[in-house]
Amino acid sequence: MKCPFCQHANTQVTDSRLLEETNSIRRRRRCVSCRQRFSTFETVEMRMPQVLKTNGSRVNFNPHKLHTSLARALHKRPVSPEKIDETVTLIEQRLYQLGKKEVPSQLVGEMAMEELAKIDQVAYVRFASVYKSFNDVSEFTQAIATLPQSQQTE
Ligand SMILES: [Zn+2]
C-alpha cells in the first residue's frame, strides 16, 4: 500500500478494526517516510452471477422480470404482493450466495418453481406450465407429482 501523500511504498498498519455493519475491515496506516496517517478499507467482493440463457447469451439477473413472472403465476391467488417481493428477494439472495460468476437460466426458473411450490399450488402449476412449456402430459403430471403433499388437498 503506497502512501497517498508522498507515494512512499512502505506504510505501517497501526490498527485493524472489523466494521460489522458493512462486513469490512478498516486499517489505520502510517507512512514510515512522511508520517502521515490514513485509513484503508477492505470489503468482500461479491456480485450477482450473470444469467446464462439457453441460446448462450448472458444477461444480468433481472428481479423485475422475475417479479412479473411470479405475479402472473399468482394472479388472483390468495397471496399478498409482499410475499411476491419476499420471494424475489429470497431467490436473489440464494443466487448471490452461490458466489458464482454465472448460473444457467434454468436454475433461476427452478428456484422460482421451488418457492412457488411452497406458496401456492395453482401458481406453481401455472408457472411450471409456462416455464417448462410442457410438450406432453407426462412432463406435466410429473411436475404435479413433485408438489408437496400438504398442498395437494386444496
Ligand atoms: Zn508518506
Automatic annotation (TrEMBL):
Keyword Lipid metabolism among UniProt keywords: no
Biological process annotations from GO: negative regulation of DNA-templated transcription
Zn-finger (unnamed) residues: 3-34
Cofactor stoichiometry and binding remark: Binds 1 zinc ion.
Cofactor: Zn(2+)
PROSITE patterns registered for this protein in UniProt: ATP_CONE
Keywords: ATP-binding, DNA-binding, Metal-binding, Nucleotide-binding, Repressor, Transcription, Transcription regulation, Zinc, Zinc-finger
Function in brief: Negatively regulates transcription of bacterial ribonucleotide reductase nrd genes and operons by binding to NrdR-boxes.
Protein family membership: Belongs to the NrdR family.
PANTHER family: TRANSCRIPTIONAL REPRESSOR NRDR
Protein name in the entry: Transcriptional repressor NrdR
Organism whose genome encodes this protein: Neisseria weixii
